[in-house]
Specification:
The protein is of the alpha+beta class. Helices cover 31% and strands 18% of the residues. The strands form two sheets. It has a five-stranded antiparallel sheet with strand order 2-1-4-3-5. The protein has a two-stranded antiparallel ribbon with strand order 6-7. Helix 4 packs across helix 6.
Length: 180
Amino acid sequence: MPPADSRILKVALDVPLDTLFDYLDGGFEVAVGQRVIVSFGPRKQVGIVAAIVDTSEFTPEKLKPILKAFTDEPPLNAELFRLLKFCADYYQYPFGQALLSVLPVRLRQTEPAQARKQFAYCLTEAGHAAGVETIPARSALQRRVYTALLELGELGESALAELSATWRKAIQAMTEMGWV
């Protein structure tokens, strides 16, 4: 039997049904607009708390608790809720699908978002020995990347992106020559 002080949450899910689903708060301090993970049938799904209510058409014993609440993230804005509710009604589209579709793909997944590996590049001994004059004059970007690596010793991806949006081609060419 659920605790007497459990709140009932109306959760929007990315399913083709135009309804909100009732869940117990599971002891989490959630706010309207907060992302949560719930069990829906045999699987887990990400949902958004659309409302916190006192009663449900189902008895509290039949309601499942949420599995996780992302309380370290700010909740979605109330203005966004109103806009998406209007859009869903206007286009006759389920509110949960409209609401969840505005989230980036990584935030719609139940697994925590993993950051992509960041690489740092530096010149090898062959790269130091080669010198900038061995790079053709028409390869201006490759010359800039080589000079920056020579001056700074090591560059991360964000520093290379500040040099040029197409820095990967220059690094790839230098890697194939054994300089990086």
